[in-house]
Amino acid sequence: MRKLCTQFLGVVSLLSAAIPTHGQTFTPQSIHFTGAPDYSDAALANVAGLAVGISYTTDELKRQAQQLMDIGIFEKVSYKFDGTKLNYTVKMSSQAFPIQVSSLPLEVGKDVDALLKANIPLYRGTLPPQGLLVEAVRRTLEELLAGEGVHAQVATELVEDPATHNTGAIKFIIASQPVRIGTLKLEGVADFLKPQLDLNAKLSDLTFDSERSTADVERSVMDAYAAHGFAAAEVHAVRYGFPVTEEGVIRVPYKVTVKQGRSYRLGTVTLAPNLPLDPAEVDRLMASRTNFIPDNLFLESLITQVEMKLKGQGYLNCHVALEPKLDENAGVANYMIEADLGATDHSGLMKAEGANGALKNLMRQ
Questions:
Q1: CATH of the domain at 249
Q2: How confident is the model over 235-246, as a mean pLDDT?
Q3: Closest CA relative to residue 50, chosen from 59, 41, 37
Q4: What pairs with residue 171 in β-bridges?
Q5: How many domains in the chain?
Q6: Domain end call among 93, 127, 152
Q7: How far apart are CA 176 and CA 249, in angstroms?
Q8: Which residue has the higher pLDDT, 260 or 1?
Q9: Which of 21, 100, 160, 230 could form a disulfide with 171 if both were Cys (CB 3.0 to 4.6 A apart)?
Q10: Structural domain of residue 269, as residue ranges?
Q11: d(Cα 139, Cα 120) in Å, to the nearest integer?
Q12: Does residue 348 form part of some domain?
């Protein structure tokens, strides 16, 4: 019985060393983390504000553990001090999502992911839905934009996966002002078309997106040429210069190069079978065509009416385009009206969190 009592007292002594009591101070000679193999002890200790050789109270160790939780990548954090070693055991969060930055007008060719990893040591290409790591990425993106002359507030949206209806990505957007297509530097463009392209409301109203805006510009210019009979025109658009802010709108400029090609007479116009419209409506519009209406005005009116009908059905972000089928021998261009109906997502705006010591430690100064 005496031996059992002695063993029990030994266990109590060990627990006292492992679990600090209120008022005590502890000076770790080493700091280790278990459960996060992708992160170094030094990186996690730095974010938590921990350092070897510094004395901490129980309350301070609790605050440091909470700073680790605030990062957002952990579901659970616990710690133990054995007299010289401060050991943290963490459980990684199961929620980690890829990021999207396509609506930010960053320099073409810039490896944003690599820049984020260089500036935020804990960033690994995915993010939790919220927390200090998300805030660190948000602020870093604002700094990258400022380096290109764009001073704007960046916010985040949770993007829904259309298949599962669960969160599929975290999208970073400019929340302070709209970002749209800017001026066009035209090369090889016929003089008679320049005024139309310079004043084309469709282009100036298009929202910028690095993944689709180049195609949108090319399609708009191609449609303008097709409407004037140049259905085989070759159009190439590229980002050109830094964005500029005009009247509260960030404008992203492009350079457009065109090879005009030969002209064609207008033939038939049909509706793509996948569009939610009655083909008979296009047939009725075609029947209303007269020789007094130039082909370009007729096709522009046709596209506008189809777009209005689609938007009336709720496809507010649709983009309508003409796909030509050329009869070279007859010199005739027949067209199919196609449309990108646009993706519908239910996104929730995430508010930025305030900065603290852990946030500063996440970002390299």
A1: 3.10.20.310
A2: 92
A3: 41
A4: 100, 157
A5: 4
A6: 93
A7: 9
A8: 260
A9: 100
A10: 265-342
A11: 11
A12: no
